[in-house]
Design brief:
By secondary structure, this protein is α+β, with helices and mostly antiparallel strands. Helices cover about 40% and strands about 25% of the residues.
Length: about 140
């Protein structure tokens, strides 16, 4: 049966099945190498009473952002905040864009600062787990570090 993940906290979650019922599941029910499923993801599963077992992720939630793409954007184009726009953090992106372009008027200090911030964020993005990255930067409101 197919369904959509309504919630998942890293250990347990809830799926809304195509039959209109809700099924609970735990991380041990996820198949393959999957250890985290964002809310809104489409899954295929077997129903066992009120529980979902043998869960396979068919399609991850729309709008999910990849931490590796964000890290590459931060490394190569971070001074202009392109990675912020990619993550949907438009206010932070505009701040970095203005500092990275117009900031050259102030002896290049603002662009230098934005470059350092982008480099630090590149490292943070690469070090964070997928679940932590998703919770902080995709689902959460974290815009900086």
């Amino acid at each position: 049966m197919r369904g959509k993940v309504l919630s998942f906290n890293g250990s347990t979650g809830l799926i809304s099945g195509d039959d209109g019922k809700r099924y609970t599941f735990s991380v041990s029910d996820l198949m393959g190498d999957t250890v985290y499923v964002p809310a809104g993801s489409t899954v295929d599963f077997e129903a066992s009473g009120d529980a979902a077992v043998s869960i396979y992720v068919i399609m991850t939630a729309m709008g999910e952002r990849n931490k590796y793409v964000a890290a590459l954007l931060a490394f190569f184009l971070g001074m202009w905040g392109i990675h912020k726009f990619y993550l949907g953090k438009n206010t932070a992106g505009i701040i970095m864009l203005v500092c990275g372009t117009v900031g050259w008027i102030l002896i290049g200090i603002p662009p230098l600062i934005m470059g350092v911030v982008a480099f630090i964020e590149t490292i943070i993005y690469l070090v964070k787990s997928d679940q932590s990255f998703y919770e902080d930067y995709v689902a959460g409101n974290r815009s900086w570090f």
